[in-house]
Amino acid sequence: MAEWFQDNGLLLGLALLDGLSSAGLIFLVAVGLNLVFGVLRIINVAHGSLYAIGAYSAASIGIFLSGRGLPDWASIPTLILSAALVGAILGPIIERLLLRRIYAQEEVVQLLVTFALFMILEDVQKLLWGVQPIHHDTAMRWLGTIDVPFGADFIPFTNYQLFVLPGIAIVTLVGLAWFLRRTLTGRVIVAVTTDREAATAMGIDAAKVFLLTFTFGAMLAALGGALSSPTAALVPGIGAQTIVLSFAVVATAGLGQIEGAALTSLMMGLGRSIAVYFEPELEVVVPYIIMVLVLLVRPQGLFGVIETRRV
Amino acid sequence: MTAPFSRRDALAAGFGAVLLPSTLSAQPAQKPAEFKIGVTTFLSGPASVFGVPSRKACEMLVDQINASGGIAGVPIRASFVDEAPGTDHLVGEFRRLVQSEGVHAMFQSISSGSCLACTPLSAELQKLTILWDCGTQRIFEENRWQYAFRTQGYGTPEVLAPLLYLLKHKPDFRTIAVINQDYAWGRDSWELWKTGMDAMKPGVRVVAEMFPRFGSTDFSTEITRLLALRPDVILSTSWGGELVTFIRQAAERRLHERSLMVLPVAEASMPTLGRSMPEGHIIGTRGDHWNNHPSPANPALFNGLVNSYRQRFNEWPIYPVHHMAQAMWALKAGVEKAVAAKGGGWPSDLEMANAFRGLSFPTPTSTITLREDGQGLEDQIVGLSSFNDRFPFAVPKDMIQFPGEQVSAPVGQKSTDWLKTLKPDFIASAGARIG
């Protein structure tokens, strides 16, 4: 074992750096889904579409503003503002016009409705942005690269990948934890997550909490998409790829568990990176292996609590 | 009350079922009011980067052909089917188009999986089927098809030509890494490449074989590993958004300064990449239809296609546009040949299909001939990425043209078996510089 670490220690170090940025992006998308799932108890398949629309919107707004002389440094706040805009517009529309009508429906109906919404939004993306890849990488290029020592060699990493993505994920995690535990609105959300019936009986306006939570979840999905846009080419189907992994994170983390989502994202990000170095064939399945292993031991998820059900 | 169904009735019904189709097919075919084609292509999902331009090209060409009198005086009408829902859906749609809509020819498909699933239907339904884009070598190497033809090259020449270019351009490379999409084309193209490479340059060390999930949007980890490994050559047959993402992430981290990249399907991504594409790397186009082709065989046809597509859609044509155009021109040439052979009468499905065997038809850049097995022989042009004043994206320089028959497995031989027989001296004799 010690010999293996001696031979592969440097590679493992590189894998850790890659895994951190990957985990950051996974977390941003999954935590929004987890929040919505925890409060609204709806499996929102359209969360992937919000990710994709966030990415496309950020790229389009960035391209538009760059063409009008926006300084390069401003492309980073533009990403965040674009995501906030997408969430603030689409979140309330979807919650008010669609989800509100199906809260009392069976889970399968809810699943079908959000899946239908996902399909509609996929076509909307094609109508608005076409099918050719779109990209806007000003933020990544402006931040440049840093050479990380690797034995006698060095490996260039982008500062965006190494610092911005994990940094924003950490800020989001800390901010969310503070918001949910230290503010009145956050505590109300936690109360609805824990026991919706009791919270409503105590006078909490559940409809308002649902609207707020869904809008916030939509913003987080769009933020994940917006932050991926400087590094990825945007094409039809990116939402579908994202939503599957996000579901794995939610299932592994436990219902509505923010810290659980962070730890799971980290495990999955690092697991995938390590697999690419040492067993690339396993890269695709590593997140799901982690999910199965966790659920075998803790069916309620890493941080989930076992719920009692009235019969 | 229903009458009892006797044994005699059953026999009569059975004979009827057997004899009726042959009786119908013996009827002289009537000239239709319109020539219906069913086109399968990706209209959604990641591969719609190819499918939507191909649909646009098809609609444009149908308009152009109809404006000039149609095919043998018959106007064309195209119906489109999305490949994205999968092969089960596609097989059903293929049947519906032939049996309910009465299409006269099917155009399929982008995905090799779609072609493998639907080509047997050409025989079952006895319907002319043109394979307009898919590249799997298995179609015509594992079976004989009477009604199916491929009007462009396929995986073997599309992989062998860039390999030969590499062996000429950088003969001293010792290590290689591959990063392909994790699906049939990614795996098959690597098998073809490795078989040919082992035959013509044995001893090359494969330092990494990476097949990221189809649809991946981040290759940072793979790029870090490639940067650490420093292979002489990196092969990627990826396409679409994934290739764009890989190149952009790699270029930002200066991977192109450490390794020579070989990108056999790069052409379609060049307009999107723009100036992000590094210069001096090997690029291919699944054929010879580069926008900067130095000496197209039919300049009027070439300029007509490129200019009309650009004017109508405000974008440069990419290879699926050319492949769709090849299929349309092959259809026109084949049907008109069959009509002429019948002295102006309308041919049956079988007579129409027979006209395609051995058919030669002009393309903007050359002439394609459909071999006796149905496979088209399309030349391949490979070059090094470069920039000039004419194009806002990379185009090839130092181009080498490889004749289709030189880089395709002979009729009756399987590609992997044929590639194993190639010798190092084949490298010098293959291809010729153009431009």
From TrEMBL, chain A:
It is a multi-pass membrane protein. The chain crosses the membrane at residues 20-43, 50-67, 73-90, 160-180, 209-227, 233-253, 284-306. Keywords: Amino-acid transport, Cell membrane, Membrane, Transmembrane, Transmembrane helix, Transport. CDD domains: TM_PBP1_LivH_like. It is found in: Cell membrane. PANTHER family: ABC TRANSPORTER ATP-BINDING PROTEIN, BRANCHED-CHAIN AMINO ACID TRANSPORT SYSTEM PERMEASE PROTEIN LIVH. Belongs to the binding-protein-dependent transport system permease family. LivHM subfamily. This is Branched-chain amino acid ABC transporter permease. It comes from Neoroseomonas terrae.
UniProtKB/TrEMBL annotation, chain B:
Keywords: Amino-acid transport, Signal, Transport. It holds the Pfam family Peripla_BP_6. Residues 35-376 form the Leucine-binding protein domain. The keyword Signal applies. InterPro entries: BCAA_transport (IPR051010), Leu-bd (IPR028081), Peripla_BP_I (IPR028082). Signal peptide: none annotated. The keyword Signal applies. It comes from the Bacteria. Belongs to the leucine-binding protein family. This is ABC transporter substrate-binding protein. It comes from Neoroseomonas terrae.
